[in-house]
């Protein structure tokens, strides 16, 4: 019997080395520890042992059985641990992998320029007013000194929504709305979308303007030019200056076109300024006395100036964009160039 136990112990020790997974662990148990296993076989063969030796041999078999069970327990823990380690390794997150970058949007060049203009004028005490995009004939034309059948209406070929309702052709209607609500001193900026039946490389049927209006006692073109100088210097550089040229708008008298000295060549002449040294940037003028009267403001006491900036035009000049269409195509290759 001693001999048999020795052999079985050696067999179990050898078999243990092969138990590397659950299936083999189960085979091990079947072969050695189950009811019909080899360890149970030892107990059965106790019958053949002489009666007087049985207690001692039985004790030896029992001890061996305990050893074999402990062996199985250790193997089982080993297999369990290996399985857990394998699972952990498979589920590991590699924290050194580059993260997925979430795309963030950025401000549109029109918005950037609009904010920049607002910043400059807000610093001079201007407030912001936003009027309606669908405007009545009265605010868009008539009270701005452009009565029905006035030829100046042709300058702004218009989208009519109904008989006397238009998609506003200019933000100048905001002047009327502000002067109806407030009395001087007035200092407002009215940014917004405007619409005209007009389309080519530098014109779009929808574009943005920034109206400016100042009304107070003793306001003159000098005040206009002083403020516009500050404005162009903030946008195009400290060295640039403005030039006023006579022009015509029905709601200002006198009216001017405002040019900025070419920031590309410094005024010597280059393709950007078409070799003139000057670039036209906006229209402006002294508010027409009829417009003040139309809003119940006495032109003998008060005077004012107004200007209208085309935001696309400023953005195109500032960023060197040669086609206005690019602004509205939503091509990310274009828009990404304006990220901070
Ligand atoms: N509203 C004019 C235009 O759209 C611009 C302008 C505004 C001119 C204010 C003078 C004063 O062309």
Automatic annotation (TrEMBL):
<dbReference type="GO" id="GO:0000287">
    <property type="term" value="F:magnesium ion binding"/>
</dbReference>
<keyword id="KW-0460">Magnesium</keyword>
<dbReference type="GO" id="GO:0005524">
    <property type="term" value="F:ATP binding"/>
</dbReference>
<dbReference type="GO" id="GO:0016740">
    <property type="term" value="F:transferase activity"/>
</dbReference>
<feature type="binding site">
    <location>
        <position position="253"/>
    </location>
    <ligand>
        <name>Mg(2+)</name>
    </ligand>
</feature>
<dbReference type="InterPro" id="IPR045864">
    <property type="entry name" value="aa-tRNA-synth_II/BPL/LPL"/>
</dbReference>
<keyword id="KW-0030">Aminoacyl-tRNA synthetase</keyword>
<dbReference type="Pfam" id="PF02912">
    <property type="entry name" value="Phe_tRNA-synt_N"/>
</dbReference>
<keyword id="KW-0067">ATP-binding</keyword>
<dbReference type="InterPro" id="IPR004188">
    <property type="entry name" value="Phe-tRNA_ligase_II_N"/>
</dbReference>
<keyword id="KW-0479">Metal-binding</keyword>
<dbReference type="InterPro" id="IPR002319">
    <property type="entry name" value="Phenylalanyl-tRNA_Synthase"/>
</dbReference>
<dbReference type="InterPro" id="IPR006195">
    <property type="entry name" value="aa-tRNA-synth_II"/>
</dbReference>
<dbReference type="Pfam" id="PF01409">
    <property type="entry name" value="tRNA-synt_2d"/>
</dbReference>
<comment type="similarity">
    <text>Belongs to the class-II aminoacyl-tRNA synthetase family. Phe-tRNA synthetase alpha subunit type 1 subfamily.</text>
</comment>
<keyword id="KW-0963">Cytoplasm</keyword>
<dbReference type="GO" id="GO:0000049">
    <property type="term" value="F:tRNA binding"/>
</dbReference>
<protein>
    <recommendedName>
        <fullName>Phenylalanine--tRNA ligase alpha subunit</fullName>
        <ecNumber>6.1.1.20</ecNumber>
    </recommendedName>
</protein>
<dbReference type="GO" id="GO:0140096">
    <property type="term" value="F:catalytic activity, acting on a protein"/>
</dbReference>
<keyword id="KW-0547">Nucleotide-binding</keyword>
<comment type="subunit">
    <text>Tetramer of two alpha and two beta subunits.</text>
</comment>
<dbReference type="InterPro" id="IPR022911">
    <property type="entry name" value="Phe_tRNA_ligase_alpha1_bac"/>
</dbReference>
<feature type="domain" description="Aminoacyl-transfer RNA synthetases class-II family profile">
    <location>
        <begin position="113"/>
        <end position="337"/>
    </location>
</feature>
<keyword id="KW-0436">Ligase</keyword>
<dbReference type="GO" id="GO:0006432">
    <property type="term" value="P:phenylalanyl-tRNA aminoacylation"/>
</dbReference>
<keyword id="KW-0648">Protein biosynthesis</keyword>
<dbReference type="GO" id="GO:0005737">
    <property type="term" value="C:cytoplasm"/>
</dbReference>
<dbReference type="InterPro" id="IPR010978">
    <property type="entry name" value="tRNA-bd_arm"/>
</dbReference>
<dbReference type="GO" id="GO:0004826">
    <property type="term" value="F:phenylalanine-tRNA ligase activity"/>
</dbReference>
<dbReference type="InterPro" id="IPR004529">
    <property type="entry name" value="Phe-tRNA-synth_IIc_asu"/>
</dbReference>
<keyword id="KW-0175">Coiled coil</keyword>
<feature type="coiled-coil region">
    <location>
        <begin position="65"/>
        <end position="92"/>
    </location>
</feature>
């Amino acid at each position: 019997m001693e001999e048999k136990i020795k052999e079985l112990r050696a067999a179990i020790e050898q078999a243990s080395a092969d138990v590397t997974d659950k299936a083999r662990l189960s085979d091990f148990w079947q072969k050695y520890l189950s009811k019909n296993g080899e360890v149970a076989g030892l107990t059965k063969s106790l019958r053949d042992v002489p009666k007087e030796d049985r207690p001692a041999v039985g004790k030896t078999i029992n001890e061996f059985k305990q050893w074999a069970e402990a062996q199985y327990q250790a193997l089982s823990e080993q297999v369990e641990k290996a399985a857990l380690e394998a699972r952990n390794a498979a589920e590991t997150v590699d924290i050194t992998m580059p993260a997925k970058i979430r795309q963030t949007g950025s401000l549109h060049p029109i918005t950037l320029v609009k904010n920049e203009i607002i910043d400059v004028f807000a610093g001079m005490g201007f407030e912001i007013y936003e009027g309606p995009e669908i405007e009545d004939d009265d605010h868009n034309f008539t009270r701005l000194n452009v009565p029905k059948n006035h030829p100046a209406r042709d300058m702004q070929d218009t989208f009519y929504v109904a008989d006397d309702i238009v998609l506003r052709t200019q933000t100048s209607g905001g002047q009327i709305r502000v002067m109806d609500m407030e009395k001087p001193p007035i200092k407002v900026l009215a940014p917004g979308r405007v619409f005209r039946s007009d389309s080519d490389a530098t014109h779009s049927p929808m574009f943005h303007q920034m109206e400016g209006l100042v009304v107070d006692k003793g306001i003159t073109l000098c005040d206009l030019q002083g403020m516009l100088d500050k404005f162009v210097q903030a946008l195009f550089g400290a060295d640039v200056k403005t030039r006023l040229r006579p022009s015509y708008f029905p709601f200002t008298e006198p009216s001017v076109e405002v040019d900025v000295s070419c920031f590309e060549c410094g005024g010597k002449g280059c393709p950007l300024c078409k070799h003139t040294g000057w670039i036209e940037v906006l229209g402006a003028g002294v508010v027409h006395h009829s417009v003040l009267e139309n809003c119940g403001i006495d032109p003998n006491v008060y005077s004012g100036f107004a200007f209208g900036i085309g935001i696309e035009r400023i953005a195109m000049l500032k960023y060197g964009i040669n086609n206005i269409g690019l602004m509205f195509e939503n091509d990310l290759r274009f828009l990404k160039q304006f990220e901070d």
